[in-house]
Amino acid sequence: MAAELVRGQNHPLTQTRLEIRVSAGRPVVAGATLADDRGTVHGTQRVAHPGAPALPGLEVPRQAASDHRLAVDLDAMPQDVHRITVLLALPVGTGGPTRFGAVAAPFVAVTGLDGAEVASYTITDLDTESAVVALELYRRQNAWKVRAIGQGYADGLAALLADQGLTDAQALAGTIHDAVAQGLARAVAPPPRATDEAQVRAAATAGQASGALPSPAPAPPGRSGGEGPIDYTHPGRQAPPPPPTAQPAEPGRPAVPVAGDATGWSMEERLYNQVWGMFEDLARTAAAYRSAVDFADSRMEQELDHVLSDPRSRIGGQGDAAREAARAKHGALVDRAREALDRDVAQLVSESDVVEPALPAAYARWDNPCWHAYRSPMEIPMAVRLGDLRLPESEAAGLRIPMLVRLPLERGLWIDAGASAADALTDADELRARAAQTAVVHAARLLAAYPAGEFSVHVVDPAGTAAGALAPLVEAGVLASPVAGGAAGVSETLTRLTERVDLVQMAVRAGAADALPPDLDVAEQLLIVHDFPHGFDDRAVTRLRYLADEGPQVGVHLMLVADREDAAEYGPLLDPLWRSLLRLTPVPDDHLADPWVGHAWTYEPPTVPDGSAILRQVLAEVADARRARGL
């Protein structure tokens, strides 16, 4: 039976290969230190963190996430290690919570490789602390125990590390936060939780004004959960209508999927939450499968080691029989895990088959028939689809999860035109051409999602190398201004947009939105920069970084089409820029991560079917709607 620990309580450990699982509800940084019998950590090489995740007998996650698994092999620990301290910290500079008192109490569990829980601890009574020592595994008289700690640090990770005896704690904390920032830059942002009905209704039915500040995105909605016998909701508020109930086709069989089988005020919101639920389900079922396979591998390795440790069983029929038995057990465990995975993936495929055709245009693939009946919308949707996501475990079944990103965009987009984006393409020119085409497809999607006049697109193409790819936008007449070329065009466009950001920021801070100039375009703005940094001088680069950092809060968004190697001469100066943008690729690439388990997801960019005129047809409808409004 698992022990539920309180602060200061300990519990013996009878296994040497363990997992430490962390569930925090919001992304947190997980790490561990290895100390001697006096509790002193001898140097940064004894700290496992996202920037250096593996040490002998210990491995920690490479990025911040709401769920973590730390692998521990006590037998592989160096002899001078007597204490393994597990630490948690909130990421800095991400716009998220800055103290543990503002988030749900983190839950930490020590389990065997089979998932069986040994001991658990809920870290309560935290307030201003931004870093916490969760628990420690310690060796006493050649036996290992776990102790619940729960010691928080209001001064953050640097103070925690300094308390571990590290003299260069401040520098190490900076290194850890930099590594986390790089990991978060490739993470898919979780959807917001629908906690306040009024906010949900407003998000589902109305767009955010260009000068309004976006609200932070909380943790993802749950897929299930029942109501208790007592209703604690305010009597003056209405609860969201319940989702359609999926009834089993026959007793004992899986439920028949229903499109919109999630909570929400509208079908659009229900579908949005359902898609994110499918994404989370696939992440967790894949994690369970991988954990089961790891356990099977570890168990077989232990049994084979036991056989080989006895000289009498190394030769002859007894040894062969023991090896065969170990391999048979391994195969049975893997087959059982695969059976559970196949069952879950098949259920998700069935759900995808009914959800995909029901998606509205903003969420749908370009081959969805709904685009043939497209008309300029009256309201801004909750999100847009920027591509698809898949895992290796779902590859054979053909399962793809739509990648939905909330509107208005909270961060800019970077279409990576570099050769590292794909191994399949060796022609750099072909890859750059695809990157430009991908940018146009994304821009068309955003234009189609917004009502006429509420989204403006500007393009900077200094060398004019994207003229062919930009043709659909130019010919349809949907750009707010002609494509800017040369260094002068770059400077003029960036100056105009930075001035707009400054004006709106001042108006918002002063609470005087009505004081904005009457000729100011109050629509959301998208700047597409092709072939960066060609045509950019130092002043232009500074303004671009300013737009990437400050623009999204006041309705100015950036889409950068670039090969990072082309800007190598700027060195680390541009690192904050690359990290601030959501990296997308023009070809499939496994560079994105989920916010729960941290899987490497393969991103597939949106494509228009070969020979289809649907993109130009949609852009023509956007242009007609703009002309009808005198734009």
The radius of gyration computed from the alpha-carbon positions, rounded to a whole number of angstroms, is: 27 Å
In the predicted model, the low-confidence regions spanning at least 5 consecutive residues are: 194-237
Task: Describe the oligomeric state of these chains in a short phrase.
Answer: single chain
**Largest sheet composition:** 12 strands, mixed
Q: Would you kindly provide a written description of the structure presented here, covering whatever features stand out?
A:
This protein has 631 residues and is of the alpha+beta class. It is 33% helix and 21% strand. The protein contains eleven helices and 21 strands. The protein has helices at residues 157-163, 169-185, 197-205, 267-309, 316-355, 428-449, 467-476, 486-510, 538-550, 575-580, 614-628; strands at 3-5, 10-12, 17-35, 47-48, 54-55, 58-59, 65-73, 83-89, 107-112, 117-122, 131-140, 143-153, 383-390, 401-406, 413-416, 455-460, 524-532, 556-562, 582-584, 589-593, 600-604. Helix 9 links the parallel strand 17 (524-532) and strand 18 (556-562). Helix 4 packs antiparallel against helix 5 (316-355). The protein is globular, with a radius of gyration of 27 Å. It starts with a strand and ends with a helix.
